[in-house]
Structures are given as C-alpha cells and as structure tokens.
Amino acid sequence: MELSWILFQKILSMVLMLAIGYVLVKTKKMSTDQSAALSAIMLWVVTPCIMLTSLQQTFEMEKLKALLYLFGAVILIHILFIALASFLKKALKLDTVEQICLVYSNGGNLIVPLVTALLGKEFILFGIPFLVVQTTLFWTHVIRLYDPNTPVNLKKILLNPNILAIAAGLILFFLNIRLPKPALDLCDAMTGMAGPLSMLMIGMLSAGLDWKKTLTDRRVWLVCFGRLMAFPLLFLLLLAASRISAQSVLLHQAFLVTSLAICAPVAATVVQMADSFGSLKQAELASAVNVLSTILCVVTMPLLIGVYQLLC
C-alpha cells in the first residue's frame, strides 16, 4: 500500500495548488475568465511538450507490445463505458453532460505529475494510448451527443496539437532520434508545469461555483460516484479477470498508468466542450462535477490503486 500513500500525498499537494487558484480569484488578484489563458497554454504548449519528452527514449519491442495492449484495452473499455453511460442515461434520466462526465476522465494533465512521482517520467509514454483514444472520441462521440447532425471533423482530430506532437514523437521514437539538449530541457521544464497549471485552472473555475448548490445537488454526487468509483472499479475487475497486467513487470507498470487515467476525475475538456457546444446550465454542471471530482479523488484514487495492486 506504499504506492497508495505516495499517490495520496501527491494528489493532496495538487489539491492545495487548486486552493491557491481559488484564493487568487476570491481575493480579486485574478478573475475566473483568466483560466482560459492557462487552458490555452496547456493545450498548445505544455501537453505537446509532454508527448515529445515521453517518447524520447530507446525503442524496444517490449515497449511497443505494451503500447499495443494498452491501445486495445483503452478502446474496449471506452466502448463499454459509452454503452453503459447510454444505458444509464435512459435508466436514470441523465443529461447529456452527465453522461459525458461518466465516461471521460482527466487522463492527461493530472496524470503526468502522478506517473512521474510514482514510476518516473519515462512511464508517461504509456499514457499516450489513453490520450489518443480520448482526443479522437471528444471530436466524434462527444460532438455527436450534443448535436447528432454534426459531421465528424477529421481536421479537428488530425490537427489537434496533442495528436501532432504524438505523431512527431513516434517518428523520433521508432527512429531512435534524440532532440537537441536545449529542446529536450525545454520540454522537460514544460512537462513539470502540467500539474500546477491544471490545478490552478480548476481552482480558478471553482471560485465561480455556487458551492451550496453544488454540495446539495444529488445529481452532482451521483455523477462523481460513477466517474470516480463505479466505472473505474468495473475496469479494474475486468483487468484482474483478464490477467493481462500480470504477464510481465513492464505490463503491470504500463496498466498502472492506464488505471490512473481511468480513475481520474472528470476531464477539463468536458467543461470546455460543454461551454462551447452545450447550454449555460450544462457548462455550470460540468464545472461543478469537474471541481468536486478533483477534490474527492484525493481519497478515491489511492483506494482504487490499492485495489489494482491487490487484484492485478
């Protein structure tokens, strides 16, 4: 359980960063609207640097095999999650944004500092399958949920900075080409900004929430329970039954990265897309679930990773 304790301490430190963002807005040093600037920096600078630096390592067939296993597992679990959320939408009369919140976790920005702390930055590589699948689904499945008549925009997917950085990084990875040291140092420095920037952004958004309404809204708690406990636990049970992660030490560590991503709180992208394609009410709900699930994951993620260690 030592891993769970390290994870708890790291997530708690990140939630304290969230509190700093909250205080900055409440003391009028910054405004909630300024969180959009941090979001842009994350999208266009920090995350691409994360992808490039994670792929700056020696190519090995064992790593490629692990990546292929992860891609298959991530695709299958997202199909299952989407089907389950669709069923629950009818059974529980979920709003579209509630359905989306159940499926999509913050498997990018939040996971990078956690993986670095638990396993080392070289294991960020195994977060790539999750990021590629979710990025694709955001611009296909999520868009269609808001408007079924919206055509799939391949340009949005292929020109996404994360996908472009992954494509460039994979070429360098397979060819065993190293970036010049100044460029690599830049990417490493930007990677270190992922956690703090992400938490500050969420903290700034939290300052605009009606906390009394959020904490008394049963729907918010229901979605948080599904996103943080029910859906991840289903994945862990299926993974334990398959015994894939027990085949080698590398696969066990690789699936730990995927498990962290699946156990993570609601993705910040869900809030951004609700703001762009949904109603004001949906954007407010997405923000509430995003912030509350981020706070609650201090407890839920260490517990679930403890389950991973016991079963997988």
How many strands in all?
0
- Overall mean pLDDT score? 90
Structural class label: mainly alpha
Largest beta-sheet characterization: none
Shape: globular
Terminal CA distance reads: 14 Å
The helix content, as a percent range, equals: over 70%
Strand content: under 5%
The stretches of 5 or more residues where confidence is low (pLDDT under 50) are none
SSE run: HHHHHHHHHHHHHHH
Number of distinct helices? 15
Rg result = 19 Å
Question: Topology, please?
Answer:
Elements: H1 2-26, H2 35-54, H3 61-92, H4 96-103, H5 111-118, H6 128-146, H7 154-158, H8 161-174, H9 181-191, H10 194-206, H11 211-215, H12 218-242, H13 249-263, H14 268-277, H15 280-311
Which features characterize this protein?
312 residues; globular; mainly alpha
Describe the structure.
The chain is mainly α. It has 15 helices and no strands. Helix 10 crosses helix 15, helix 12 runs parallel beside helix 15 and helix 13 runs antiparallel to helix 15 (280-311). The model has no long low-confidence stretch (mean pLDDT 90).
